[in-house]
Design brief:
This protein has 749 residues and is α/β, with parallel strands linked by helices. Helix 3 (42-55) packs antiparallel against helix 4 and helix 17 (560-571) packs parallel to helix 18. The longest helix has 45 residues, at 109-153.
């Protein structure tokens, strides 16, 4: 890990020092890749695209290359095209999906259409590839088992095992091939034992004859007895009897029983030792043969080991490696391509006079957030001119992809700063990009104004103290109570604890619908209103957002589509001036009428904007849909999937909805990206308790912690309890909350 970080630091230092005059900037690699694609040099294209992504991992419809030149930079799409032509369709589909998730390609009509076409072609090719491979596997297994049967009937056991290896290499779970291999290994083990017994018995007979001729009758008797133990034979029995008769003539004690036991023990010990030695030689032979490219010889040795020692782990591993080679040889499969991680910022940069994209800030405290899309969790490293910066990371799985969110906080010096981000996945693929920011120090921060500020400070401080005192007195006189209990939080100053969650939703809402779920009164409605406010304020370079808040509570299903149309028309009324839409509250207003009105609304909005119109339905109390006819759910889903896929997204919120919709039979199964709205953590809860009354009332740490423990961090319960506490302080003309106050209010509820 330390070595990897050193490499990344070195790479970042080179990029930061070299800057735009580097010998091989991303756009040169990208231009080389486009040329390679045109010349059908697919492998070269993959190499060049990966090199480009190491330097710039975020796509762009207008990426500045050099000077004032801009290019369409869709590296993941082009990488998918190369993998498609290389026959690596899984990698191609992953690359296409990544490009689509980044969203930039949607700004190019031609490129987006080409992406859609290639996704269809790659999907069809993958299905055909799978079907052809399955057919080929069945053919190989059938031919191999037929060959196994023929060779086994001819007594060619080792050749039959080699034939069974072909079947198992392409179909390791095939029952027929597994049964045949087990029987063949048993036969091979029996043959090996028989040959070994024959060899040892013959050697012992020769030794016994020599001992008998030399007059060593006791040794001859023992050796010949061991030979008879291994292989009964009349001639050997006669020699053994001769040795015993001559031994008895010499009045030697009879030790036949003891001798038999000794022979059995020695045989068992020798057999175990010889087995281990033979297994060791066979494993060494299997390994050396595999390294030399002799896959069949390696398999033969490993199969002999399993015949002698079923379950030998080293032999099983060696067979798996050999099967992988045979599989590629028989099926022509190749390792799939790895897709580099994809980076996407919450991008607030604008083009300066020189055409460079930079973000200008007026405060030295800078926070950069974004996401990394990959097949697995990634490591994210961030560097500036002052060295490495530790990012905050969190990951979640989204089907075949993992979404890793990152955030970086840094104090910037005046002037330009470049932050270099490098994302690395488990497969060793890297992607990087640069984010430029300029901190323009306000005039009041300049040293020459410090003296004037100090002079003014003395005069102002007295006024501020008086004003603060007057404000506190005035607020207490008016029974100031900022907390909200029961109603959703509409005031941005009272919206605490959910800003990172809202930022996360805003990062992904461009192309994805989301489901907010959680217990009742956990703050889902407040989040929906905050989203509406933020969407109205956001100045996105590519999308024109039109949020519509819809509350379904108590809405009967016969008025469902009319309710959606009514809220859309009413909330977007200022933008729909001049558009004639007729909708009625009667039961005759249904899905068809909604589609027609919605199409007219989007068309009217699009005529007024050069950006892509994105109507965002913020649907609250969506649990009502659980009680509707399933056909209503299906028709609502078709709005997002078919009719208005490009211009319509939704953020829905409910309590029981996740349990219902995660069933495979639900029309909403696997449609939404799901986000759970949880109780506040301790920091968020402390902010909600203290900040609204800061400077007016005081709550010490023990009081705050007690409130958190009583409410479990649930914002509604915190607000409800704090409303009562502030009321109590007003009544008793006090400024400081106590634990006793909390107990009194809690017990009175």
């Amino acid at each position: 890990m330390q070595h990897r970080c050193t490499i990344l630091l070195a790479a970042a230092a080179i990029v930061l020092i070299a800057g735009p005059v580097a010998a091989d900037p991303w756009y040169e690699h990208y231009a080389n890749a486009l040329q390679a694609l045109e010349q059908q040099e697919w492998t070269v294209a993959v190499q060049q695209l990966n090199a480009a992504l190491e330097k710039k991992g975020d796509s762009g419809a207008r990426a500045r290359s050099y000077g004032m030149n801009v290019v369409e930079y869709f590296p993941y799409f082009r990488l998918g095209v190369a993998y498609y032509h290389l026959g690596q369709f899984d990698a191609a589909l992953q690359a296409f999906e990544t490009e689509a998730r980044l969203g930039a390609i949607a700004e190019s009509v031609a490129a987006n259409a080409e992406l859609a076409e290639f996704r269809i072609r790659a999907g069809e090719a993958r299905e055909a590839q799978v079907a052809e491979q399955a057919r080929r596997i069945r053919e190989i297994v059938s031919d191999s088992l037929a060959e196994v049967s023929r060779l086994a009937s001819e007594g060619q056991v080792e050749a039959a095992i080699a034939a069974a290896d072909k079947a198992l290499a392409v179909a390791p779970d095939d029952a027929g091939a597994l049964a045949a291999m087990q029987e063949l290994r048993s036969t091979l083990a029996r043959q090996q034992r028989e040959r070994e017994l024959e060899r040892r018995a013959s050697r012992l007979v020769e030794q016994g004859r020599a001992l008998l001729d030399a007059g060593d009758y006791e040794g001859a008797s023992s050796t010949l007895g061991e030979a008879l133990f291994l292989r009964p034979d009349p001639d050997v029995q006669a020699l053994h009897d001769t040795a015993n008769s001559r031994l008895r003539a010499g009045a030697a004690p009879d030790r036949s029983d003891e001798e038999s036991r000794r022979i059995e023990r020695r045989y068992a010990e020798q057999q175990a030792a010889e087995l281990e030695a033979r297994v060791g030689r066979l494993l060494a032979s299997a390994s050396s043969s595999f390294e030399a490219g002799a896959t069949e010889a390696s398999l033969a040795a490993a199969n002999q080991v399993l015949a002698l020692q079923p379950g030998n782990a080293a032999a099983i591993d060696q067979i798996a490696r050999a099967y992988a080679v045979i599989n590629r040889r028989l099926l022509g499969t190749r390792p799939g391509g790895n897709i580099p991680p994809a980076l996407r910022f919450v991008d607030l940069r604008e083009e300066d006079d020189e055409g460079q994209r930079v973000q200008i800030i007026r405060s030295p405290d800078f926070r950069l957030t974004g996401i990394v899309i990959d097949e697995s969790p990634v490591e994210v490293s961030v560097f500036s001119g002052d060295g490495a910066i530790e990012p905050v990371l969190s990951s979640q799985s989204l089907g075949d992809f993992t979404l890793t969110e990152f955030s970086v906080e840094v104090a910037l010096p005046p002037g330009p700063t470049s932050l270099w981000l490098m994302a690395s996945d488990a497969g060793g693929m890297n992607s990087g990009t640069e984010y430029s920011v300029i901190y323009v120090r306000p005039l009041l921060r300049e040293p020459r104004f410090q003296a004037l500020l100090l002079l003014a400070f003395g005069v102002a401080i007295a006024g501020l103290l008086w004003r603060s005192h007057w404000r506190r007195a005035e607020l207490r006189r008016r029974k100031f109570n900022p907390y909200v209990a029961g109603a959703p939080v509409m005031n941005d100053d009272m919206f605490f604890g959910r800003r990172r969650l809202v930022d996360r939703i805003l990062q992904t809402i461009h192309n994805n619908s989301l489901l907010l779920y959680g217990e009742r009164r956990i703050g889902k409605t407040s989040i929906q209103h905050q989203l509406k406010r933020r969407l109205l304020e956001i100045d996105d370079p590519y999308f024109a957002f039109h949020p519509v808040y819809i509350d379904l509570q108590g809405t009967p299903q016969e008025q469902f589509f009319w309710t959606i149309a009514k809220d859309i028309v009413e909330e977007l009324a200022p933008s729909l001036a001049g558009l004639e839409i007729t909708h009625s509250a009667s039961a005759n207003y249904g899905y068809r009428e909604l589609v027609g009105d919605l199409r007219a609304v989007i068309r009217h909005l699009q005529e007024k904007s050069s950006k892509t119109v994105k109507v965002v339905l913020l649907i609250d109390e969506v649990d009502e849909l659980n009680e509707y006819d399933p056909r209503i759910n299906q028709r609502l889903r078709s709005l997002f999937m078919k009719n208005f896929a490009e211009n319509l997204v939704a953020v829905v919120s409910g309590v029981e909805i996740k349990k219902r919709w995660e069933r495979e039979g639900s029309p909403w199964y696997n449609f939404f990206e799901e986000i759970e709205v949880r109780p506040f953590d301790e920091r968020e809860a402390r902010d909600l308790i203290r900040k609204p009354i800061e400077g007016i009332f005081r709550a010490d740490a023990d009081v705050v912690e007690y409130i958190i423990s009583l409410t479990g961090g649930r914002p509604y319960l915190i607000q409800k309890l704090c409303v009562a506490l502030v009321t109590r302080l007003h009544e008793e003309r006090r400024r400081k909350m106590t634990v006793a106050d909390v107990d009194a209010v809690a017990n009175a509820r």
